[in-house]
Amino acid sequence: MTTTTTGTTAVTGAVGTAHTRVEGLAKVTGAARYAGEIPFAELAHGWLVLSTVARGRIRSVESAPVLAMPGVLAVLHHGNAPRVDGDYLGMLGRPDPIVEVFQHDRVPFMGWPVALVVAETSEQAREAAETLVVHYDAESHDVAFSAGRPGTYTPDAAGMQTEKGDLEAELAASTHVVDAEYTTPEEHHSAMEPHAATARWDSGRLEVFDSNQGSTWVADELAKLFSLDPASVRVRSEHVGGAFGAKGIRVHQILAAMAATVLDRPVRVVMTRRQTFSLVGYRSPTAQRVRLGADSDGRLRAFDHQGQSLTSTVHEFVEQSAGFGRPLYDADAHHTVNRVVPLDVPTPTFMRAPGEAPGSFALESALDELAEKCGMDPIALRARNEPAVGPVSGLPFSSRNLLSCFQEGARRFGWADRDPRPGLRREGRWLLGTGTATATFPVLVGPSTAAVTAEADGTFTVRITAADVGTGARTALTLIAADALKVAPERVQVRIADSDFGPAMLAGGSMGTRSWGWAVTAAVRELREQLALGVDIPEQGITARSDTTEALGALTQKERHSFGAQFAEVAVDVTSGEVRVRRMLGIFAAGRIINPLTARSQFIGGMTWGISMALHEEAVRDPASGGHVGADLAGYHIAANADVPLIEADWIDDPDPEDPVGIKGIGEIGIVGAAAAIANAVWHATGARHRHLPIRPDRVL
Ligand code: MOS
Predict the structure, then answer these.
(1) Which spans in 208-353 are helix H?
(2) Which of 350, 441, 443, 562 to mutate to test the pocket of ligand 1 (most atoms within 8 A of CB)?
(3) What is the pLDDT of residue 533?
(4) Same domain, 436 and 453
(5) Which of the listed residues 531, 549, 567 is the one where a domain comes to its end?
(6) Same-domain status, 430 and 502
(7) Is residue 272 assigned to a domain?
(8) pLDDT the model gives residue 12
(9) Which atom of ligand 1 is nearest to the CA of 353?
(10) Are residues 421 and 530 in the same domain?
């Protein structure tokens, strides 16, 4: 794997140099405690019981026999649980009504929580939970997702639909037209650390030790849900073993808090892997139609991307796959629309690069098909349609370095030597091919507060309610603070993930480090002004605080994006239909890179997920039961080490012009376009287009 950086930004301090994680030693020695393993005296354990019908009502929960079992302390359910009020607006709007857990007898999907058995030990709770009998009045359900099925609608929410120009006229006037349908399956986050929370009442405050993407977010929602004074809720999330969009307010925190209230002792709730399949959200399957029309020279006249996803019957979440191409390629007529259909399934949610991941598979595959029709190189086709301003918005780009990514990527991948004709390269039983695709992701930022303390011993302490979900955010903030303070990183301690530190953006939308870094540099600027006065530092130190709400409010309207170019080489076994990825290269223009070591891991992790998405991942629902078939990591396949070849990720110099540190955000772009690059390589190897993921052996043969 390469260890060079292409970037040429003059870097004088800690930012831009490779640093291992500041908590790395604690993590690899087991000293770092995750939410499910922090010890507490008098700790009780809750075990979830989930519905076994996909729609209906709970008739009865037969608690009595279970309450007589060893160690069992309580059986919470809709008949006896503390009341909550889910009618509020949280950080991301109205919550998924799953927060109103145990508030009514309705079952809207298979795997809905119907009871929590609490016992002295986790084993006792589990045994009792598996013994608990729940009776239902089942109703008929419908979980069958397909393109254009009855009930599909275009949501009213902003941004679901964009239309510029006369699409049908431009299609009719086009020399080359691609009209193709693509599907992606239901996919799950499958974080290595399943959701876990311990709740307790301490001196009149509700304290929750959690695994989440934002302790401000979770604390705020718990306070609203339980009608508590926000100051009386404290949420901490010191270490997180993966999140990917799934770790917000979920039933584990709520039920741990309910049980801690009822029993007046600390209660821990840990989800099993299987339970995460219905309780934490997932990526909706998509059915997409892409129509592209071009002149003979490849210039787009018509662009139409229609995305369809599913949602639950209780809440609307839309996987906006059709949004992907809005900033990318210009066309005389440019139409996009996202549609959705409610079914008797759990509500989907954000999952790494929501919208962009499935959307890029469809659109970047369609562009490859168009390049073939035009007799053009796929990179040249993209260059031909590079817009001067946002194709839909008309707004200028804050910076746009897509073509530089393709140039650098093509050079390093050896693209110039490629024979574009498919099905020509053979090595024994393997057909070989290469493919490419565009990656892009929006550059966002959210308001945060931070505090920086100059300690009497010459060190500095940063406090911010950031979350390090495994990305290395804590280390990145250490480097950012060190450079701002003009001291070595060893003199800076960054404390994160404690809602008592004040409001901050969550780790999501690839905007964590940018949002928190902005606040940290602002607090340091304030501190340096105070220290410039030559004051002596008292024993408790000198603390400066920041709040970026106003500064971010002054940002003007622009198209802000990261970009990237994905390349893949595959070998396809003509006897078994197996696709092996042989190598991948991703070149990204994603702002200033804070820590090359962890940034490279983040890109490679996303690209690895692209392999998974292209070849392995697929949650299968049984229409008869309404539940999953094989809801675990044996049945739900993800790329294993043996599936992952040499992956190189690198970047070009692309500092954000507005961010104080030059950050854009790198959390999600690594997966974007990766599956399309692989699918395009499979076409180049075999001559067959694969428009349905995953590209399983039975589909290849
Ligand atoms: Mo990510 S899907 O923005 O948590």
Answers:
(1) 215-225, 251-263, 273-279
(2) 350
(3) 87
(4) no
(5) 549
(6) no
(7) no
(8) 57
(9) 2
(10) no
Residues 111 and 51: their CA atoms lie apart, in Å, by: 5
How far apart CA 358 and CA 309 sit, in angstroms, is 10
Nearest ligand 1 atom to the CA of 245 is 4
Mark the ranges of the chain whose per-residue pLDDT is less than 70: 1-12
Which structure tokens are listed for 227? 């009608």
Pick the atom of ligand 1 nearest to 510's CA.
Answer: 3
Q: Decide: residue 205, CB within 10 A, 0-12 exposed, 13-18 middle, 19+ buried.
A: middle
Q: Is the CB of 350 under 6 A from ligand 1?
A: yes
Whether the model clears a pTM of 0.95, i.e. scores above it, the answer is: yes
Please give the angle made by the CA atoms of 257, 263 and 269, to the nearest 5 degrees: 45
Asked whether residue 155 is domain-assigned, the answer is no
Nearest C-alpha neighbor of 365 from the set 182, 523, 207: 182
This model of the complex carries an ipTM of 0.97
**Does residue 674 contact residue 614 with C-beta atoms inside 8 Å?**
yes
Do 641 and 492 belong together in one domain?
no
The verdict on the CB of residue 348 being under 6 Å from ligand 1 is: no
Q: Is 357 in the pocket of ligand 1 (CB under 6 A)?
A: no
Angle between helices 596-615 and 674-686 (to 10 degrees): 50
Choice from 282, 352, 613 to test ligand 1 binding pocket (greatest atom count within 8 A of CB)? 352
Counting from 1 in the atom list of ligand 1, the atom nearest the Cα of 246 is 4
- State the closest ligand 1 atom to the C-alpha of 507, by its place in the atom list counted from 1: 4
Q: What's the 27 CA to ligand 1 centre distance in angstroms?
A: 23
Using alpha carbons, list the distances in angstroms from residue 65 to 115, 133, 137, 259.
Answer: 14, 9, 21, 19
Q: Check residue 546 and give its pLDDT.
A: 98
What is the structure's pLDDT at 1? 32
For residue range 282-311, list pLDDT tens digits in order.
999 999 999 999 999 999 999 999 999 999
The size of the chain, in residues, is 701
The answer to whether 439 touches 567, Cβ cutoff 8 Å, is no
Judgement on whether residues 403 and 480 belong to the same structural domain of the protein? no
- Active-site annotation holder among 187, 372, 658, 668: 668
Task: Find the angle CA(605)-CA(609)-CA(613) to the nearest 5 degrees.
Answer: 170
Of 668, 669, 671, 672, which is best to mutate to test ligand 1, by the most ligand atoms within 8 angstroms of its C-beta? 668
pLDDT of residue 3: 33
Q: What is the dihedral of CA 451, 454, 455, 456, to 10 degrees?
A: -150
Query: Do residue 424 and residue 497 come from a single domain?
Result: no
Total domains, the chain = 2
Contacts of residue 200, Cβ cutoff 8 Å, sequence gap at least 6: 40, 206, 207, 260, 265, 266, 267
Domain final residue pick, 524, 549, 574 = 549
What pairing do the DSSP bridges indicate for beta strands 44-50 and 72-77? Answer: unpaired
Q: Is 668 a catalytic residue?
A: yes
- Which CATH number does the domain housing residue 432 bear? 3.30.365.10
Alpha helices by DSSP H, listed for 319-472, are 356-374, 378-384, 402-413
Q: Is 245 touching ligand 1 by the criterion CB < 6 Å?
A: yes
Same domain? For 429 and 456 the reply is no
Task: Tell me, using a 6 A CB cutoff, whether residue 509 lines ligand 1.
Answer: yes
Ligand 1: distance of its center to the CA of 615 in Å? 22
Integer Cα distance of 58 and 255 in angstroms: 18
For residue 432, being part of any structural domain is answered with yes
Can you tell me which residue has the tokens 């087991």? 30
- What is the extent of the structural domain holding 501? 446-549
Q: Which pair of tokens denotes residue 425?
A: 């390269």
For residues 321-360, one letter each, b for 16 or more C-beta atoms within 10 angstroms of the residue's C-beta and e for the rest, the string is: bbbbbbbbbbbbbbbbbbbbbbbbbbbbbbbbbbbbbbbb
- Asked whether residue 588 is domain-assigned, the answer is yes
Is the domain of 655 the same as that of 593? yes
